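Hallway conversation turned thread

IA: we were arguing at lunch whether anyone had actually written out 1,3-beta-glucanosyltransferase end to end. Turns out nobody had. So, for the record, here is the sequence (475 residues) and right after it the structure tokens. Reply here if something looks off.
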Amino acid sequence: MRLSTLLIAALSGVASAAIESVVMKDRHFYTESGKPFFIRGVDYQPGGSAEFEKGHDPLSDINTCARDIYMFQQLGINTIRVYSVDPSLNHDECMTLLAQAGIYLVLDVNTPLQNQHLNNQEPWTTYNPWYLEHVFSVIEVFSGYANTLAFLCGNEVVFEKVSAKTSPNYIKAVVRDMKGYIERHVGRVIPVGYSNADDLNYRISLAKYLECGPEGYIDFFGVNSYQWCGHNTFEGSGYDKLVEDYSDMSIPIFFTEFGCNEVRPREWEEVDALYGNNMTGVFSGGLVYEYSQEANDYGLVDIAKNGQVKTRDDFMSLQKAYAALPKDIKVPSDVKLNKRPATCPPSDDPVFDHITANHTLPWTLGEDMIKKGVADKAKRGKFVTVSTRATNYNIVIDGKVVENKDVKMTVKTSDQKVLSPGGHGQNTGGWDGNTPAADSNTAKTGTETSAAAAVGGQKAIVGSLVAVAVAFGFL
Ligand SMILES: *[C@@H]1O[C@H](CO)[C@@H](O)[C@H](O)[C@H]1NC(C)=O
Ligand SMILES: *[C@@H]1O[C@H](CO)[C@@H](O)[C@H](O)[C@H]1NC(C)=O
């Protein structure tokens, strides 16, 4: 016994910093220790979202991850967004390396493959058990990593008239099911949000629809925005209007995509505005579209066929813009806090113009999986000892070949939290496993909690988590 006591003492000696999970409080994100967390990141799907295939994804190959995480560190980011993953693959090494680099993941649960996304014109044809099995599998795998910041239930599902009529209550149904799964099978609250198309018709209407009611409401709203182009200003770009439009929301909001490419090279003046006092009361930062150069011409780097990565001008200018930001960004003291509407306005309320705000959600088709879990289909991810943190690929930054391509680690250990199954015991808007979802706008007495209260409920569990320090071998 004595020996093992000594061993534990020695281990805890090196277990200095470890990546903390990010939690929601009021309308912002914070680290568990209470530091405001503003998302500074990029969208990351080399090869493009549409080209996704089974058997390979951006977080499944350590050689590629080490290359790109090195680049993320040069850029100075704390978050990436990935659009599509294959939950049957192992992501432990890449997620561990990201955690050790202090980088969080915002993950979409869909792919372009059949049964892995909603058809936005006729969602009832694709909202089925196979689809939900995919979604739950993604959650099952990625909920094992403390640096999974959030899940996105969909990206631009509503984008024109037909989808605006048919899809909104299906989006909410998916959110309800995802939260139901997380509540039952994950030991912490992982926020679930939606990523909205850059379209004035849905900017407010869909945000309001997804925020309200007792069930299937989102925890944060993602905005894809390309409205600040070239040399512009807070007012000239319309960012002022954007902030005004969302100022009465109750939940965190951030850009899930930004970075207009109409004026080249991009100057990233909007970065200054986004992380400044004009916006930080309402916006929690954003994700630049996108890391790799693809057909649509938004890349920060070029990736060659042989795996060599080379910075473009936009990478260097973005690096400069990030470097010029203040080190600690604070939530403004005059932040406007709003209560989440636990009951939705009636469907014909003008706030829902341009969308069909049906407050009745389709009955869940994931009932059994929400009850029993999908652990037999997908393996919960975990942090591991990473054998390599350098890459074999060539890296060229600003025209110069890089020799030491090691990922610098900001933490000396990765702590593997043993997440207790069974959830946090609070209804955060997921399917509660009993009440038929006949009329989701009828508040269920006694179970309604705000996102903030859910975070409070989570605290107790965080305290009881067993933190296992896994010493990382330094050579
Ligand atoms: C903030 O807003 C003010 C007033 O609208 C404007 O003059 C200023 O340039 C803005 N600051 C930034 C960093 O965009
Ligand atoms: C609302 O959605 C439910 C579930 O999909 C559906 O049964 C119902 O017909 C819809 N109501 C309207 C008015 O479209």
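OS: looked through it. The longest helix spans residues 168-185.
IA: good, adding that to the notes. Confidence is low (pLDDT under 50) at residues 1-17, 412-427, 436-475.
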